[in-house]
Amino acid sequence: MRPRTTAIALAVALIALALGLAACGEKSESESKEKQPLSLALDFYPNPDHAGIYMAQEKGYFDEAGLDVSISSPSDPSAPLKLVASGKADLAISYEPEVVLGHEQGLPVTAVAALVNQPLTSLIWLRSSGIKGVADLKGKTVATAGIPYQEAFLKTILNRAGVAPETVKSVNVGFGLLPALVGGQAQAMLGGYSNVEGVDLQQRGKAPVITPVDQLGVPTYDELVLVANSETLAEKGEQIRLFIAALERGTEAAVADPEAATAAITAANPELEPKLTAAEMEATLPLLAAREGNHPFGYMDPRRWQAFAAWMRDEELIAGLPEAPELLSNAYLSGAIPE
Hints:
This protein is an alpha/beta fold.
């Protein structure tokens, strides 16, 4: 009996050892697939423009891609580009005009995907103002956010309508665009977004007239873009490709479930008013999902970028004229096309 008992005990021990070794092997394999860190700087506090990002995070798409994504919200909208340029963030959300200006300043930044491939910046006035068109702005006051290239937007818009820019008073109100317009300090405003300030005014019952700047003479451009440092692209190109693919899935999930997308954004930023955020989300999701023809999610049109850079040069916002490949790359998109 004893030898038999000893044999059984030995067999059990061997099985336990085998299972332990297998478990160790599984652990080692799991550890070898440890998620890669990737930092993202938003352009502003979390809002519906970021629905695809927070849905990707909520649904675990970044995790499935093997990414550990950390998100920060700088208080200065111009900071993200600088964070990427200095290597303090792997990715950032910025704006096409800022990328062009950054290139002029020698910053090593490249746009790698468009989040919104059309202008959101709009000229807005209220129907109650009696303004029927741009020509009626003569002798009026326009509130602006004080951004130099948006001042150039206004100049282009007025010239196209045959209005001498000096006959229109431009007032820099910073972030106070809505109070200036609603309070009567200005009869129009330039710098607000169609899907944010425009929706806010609609929710207040103010009957705004909202016209994106590319419908008023400014060359079209990509309002929101994802940017990376050239060194980061060399080191983390595959992670960035995986991030954009996960972001595409997150955007699709947001479009399929706007209520969940609104919940994800309000959870990320509890200061947002849920009803207004839901309305802004409804206006924003079609913009996030917009594509050009058969091009992949995030595609940026080099010809449009070239035309916009030429306009910036003509407006003396930049001295030189960069080539589109110096500013952007579509190489990190799903099914990337040769450039």
